[in-house]
TrEMBL record:
Keywords: Membrane, Transmembrane, Transmembrane helix, Transport. This is Glycerol uptake facilitator protein. It is a multi-pass membrane protein. The chain crosses the membrane at residues 37-61, 81-100, 121-141, 182-203, 215-239, 267-289. InterPro entries: Aquaporin-like (IPR023271), MIP (IPR000425), MIP/Aquaporin (IPR050363), MIP_CS (IPR022357). Gene3D superfamilies: Glycerol uptake facilitator protein. One of its GO terms (cellular component) is plasma membrane. The keyword ATP-binding does not apply.
Amino acid sequence: MGFYKSNSTKKISNKGGFILSIAFQRKSWRCTLMGELIAEFFGTLLLIAFGDGGVAVAVVGLSESGRTPPNLGGNWLLITWGWAFAVALAVYVTGGVNGAHMNPAVSFAMAIKGDLPWKKFIPYSISQIVGAFCGAAIVYWDYYRAIDAFNVQHHITSLAGIGGSATFGIFATSPAPYFSHLWGPLLDQILGTMFLLLFILGITDMKNMGVQGNLGPFMIGIAVAAIGMSFGVDAGYAINPARDFGPRLFAWIVGYGHNAFPGPLGYWWVPIVGPIIGGGLAVFVYRWFIEKTLIERASIKANLKEGVVSSENITERV
């Protein structure tokens, strides 16, 4: 940050005949909170456009386009790798502005950690949710014909009915049918988001291994793929309140009704509360078990090195 726009210049003469030029400058909106919010909006839009887009290809795109045999769409790996690439590429596009949170749970964790002022948390979260909403709108506009064809093929007459849940999953998450209560999905979201933030904190901590060569976004994408492959099926691994709530709201508007709100078992709030708790826990877990250890070990090494240098200086003087 540091781009400024000069509005006017005032010249002042002093007794020595020197002319002092004082530039009165005004910050461009790109150098204010607005620039950060637009980056969060655009980054989250990209995340959802390519993440939900990958799910759309797997659920309806491949089969209804005739690019695979009927009833043989994409598999879980297509979805997990699709989200991984979506995360990595969105961070590469917008991360230079403010780090590309694209996730209220990440912003919450960064606020706890002290890397984000608390006053920015709500504006960041709103921008992320709006970006996710718009990303879902892009996916729907591109794939609504495939969704309609899928519904005709499977005799689904209402998006708000039981059959509509198949394509609702393109946009937002829901618990697996083997759950009869929400404690399991809630714990799943807490755990999955805690893992996500642990990976982010470890990858971005230069006191740790220190990812080199601008590979940080790529490795965070790999982390998302790992979570999806290992902990994704219980509740669809939203691990991001904006990623779920924005598209869920859009899906409700276009007619998914009870599949969106309140969702199965009244699930709609779980991908909001669970990730916030998990993100906050991750900061304390990483700080207590990893970061403090790294700091203390680095301090001991520095003191030992300083002691060796001091001993060598004393020897040389003697």
